[in-house]
């Protein structure tokens, strides 16, 4: 049937299930060394499969939970135009979650298993979505900074060694790039408005800046997964290097916007050719990812309730599919 896979029958580079473990491992290693993609039906080490399921499913959960902070503002958007844009953006995030769950399903894990891991607190989602959206300016800041950080992290994932993940990331990055611009545009409109609007934007930037820098993950020295995922070509750039690239790009954008980034240690380092920034509060980061951030309980409870409330839709869809299949069988038999 149809497949996401790009490898073709007879392609000598494909890692087939034939042969002993050592020869399959050697074929996999050769593929990695040549920077070729691994496809769903290829043989892969269990640990590679497991780490992909971990990262892709956590990424999917982040997109789905990430709909909540902005979703809270759909009914309170300041104009019809901003409401339509926000509705479309939040829907896009839902779509990203679905492509990513589908990419993870190609690794032989079911959607139910992944969702259950999220709902029972066994799977993580991005720390950033455990912070509250207090004002309309927070929605603009999520677009500008959170989507901005997400793109910085995700562009290299378009070159990830696992084909379905890499391909999902291409479309996701295009949409995230639009999200980032809409956030910047919403903030620019407020910065050109009243003093109260400018203060609201500055307050939102002050609250989100440090949590956004933590989205890139712990410092490289504390990143337990990086060495292996980089060796496997899943991650291409380290947490600290991506964080630095983001800081360097965003300082310039903040100048255009006319906001101050809330870090007195932020200054250009001529020798390094990068901006220096102050150490981040990693205790806060670990607290948030371990379930004790400002909104962890609320976010998870909302997701669980949405899943339970949607049970009748899943049941109806299954009943419809069963009825269609029975009709098809009857037609074939007639
Ligand atoms: N939050 O060894 P590392 C978005 C965990 S999508 C929570 O460095 P790794 C779109 C990590 O899982 C945002 N947990 O981990 C949007 C690991 O624990 P584990 C999501 C975090 O995997 C915008 C432990 O710490 N993006 O924003 C975080 O090599 C607006 C040790 O860390 C992705 O998921 C964190 N920030 O690197 C939606 C991108 N950081 O699993 C709505 C794909 C680390 O061993 C609105 N993922 N941890 O128990 C990645 O690139 C990587 O997984 C990292 C973490 C970079 C997130």
From TrEMBL:
It comes from the Bacteria. InterPro entries: Aromatic_CoA_ox/epox, Ferritin-like, Ferritin-like_SF, PaaA, PaaA_PaaC. Residues 1-21 are annotated as: Disordered. Pfam families: PaaA_PaaC (PF05138). Its EC number is 1.14.13.149. It is an enzyme of class 1 (oxidoreductase). One of its GO terms (molecular function) is phenylacetyl-CoA 1,2-epoxidase activity. Keywords: Oxidoreductase. This is 1,2-phenylacetyl-CoA epoxidase, subunit A. The gene is paaA_2.
């Amino acid at each position: 049937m149809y497949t996401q896979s790009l490898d073709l029958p007879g392609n000598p580079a494909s890692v087939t299930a034939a042969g002993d473990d050592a020869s399959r491992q050697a074929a996999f290693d050769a593929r990695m060394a040549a920077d070729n993609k691994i496809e769903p039906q290829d043989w892969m080490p269990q640990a590679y499969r497991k780490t992909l399921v971990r990262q892709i499913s956590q990424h999917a959960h982040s997109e789905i939970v990430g709909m909540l902070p902005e979703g809270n503002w759909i009914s309170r958007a300041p104009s019809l135009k901003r409401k339509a844009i926000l509705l479309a953006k939040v829907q896009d995030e839902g779509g990203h979650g679905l492509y990513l769950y589908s990419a993870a399903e190609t690794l032989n894990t079911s959607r139910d298993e992944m969702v259950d891991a999220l709902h029972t607190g066994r799977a993580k989602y991005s720390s950033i979505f455990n912070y509250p959206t207090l004002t309309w300016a927070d929605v603009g800041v999520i677009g500008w900074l959170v989507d901005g950080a997400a793109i910085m992290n995700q562009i290299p994932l378009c070159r990830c060694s696992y084909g379905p993940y890499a391909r999902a990331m291409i479309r996701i990055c295009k949409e995230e790039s639009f999200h980032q611009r809409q956030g910047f545009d919403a903030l620019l409109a407020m910065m050109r408005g009243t003093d109260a609007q400018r203060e609201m934007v500055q307050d939102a930037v002050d609250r989100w800046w440090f949590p956004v820098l933590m989205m890139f993950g712990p410092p490289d020295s504390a990143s337990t997964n990086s060495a292996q995922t980089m060796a496997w070509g899943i991650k291409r750039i380290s947490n600290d290097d991506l964080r630095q690239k983001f800081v360097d790009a965003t300082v310039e954008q903040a100048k255009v916007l006319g906001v101050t980034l809330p870090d007195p240690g932020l200054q250009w380092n001529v020798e390094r050719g990068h901006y220096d920034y102050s150490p981040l509060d990693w205790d806060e980061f670990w607290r948030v990812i371990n379930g004790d951030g400002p909104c962890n309980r609320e976010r998870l409870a909302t997701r669980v309730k949405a899943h339970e409330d949607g049970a009748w839709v899943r049941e109806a869809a299954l009943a419809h599919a069963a009825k269609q299949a029975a009709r098809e069988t009857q037609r074939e038999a007639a």
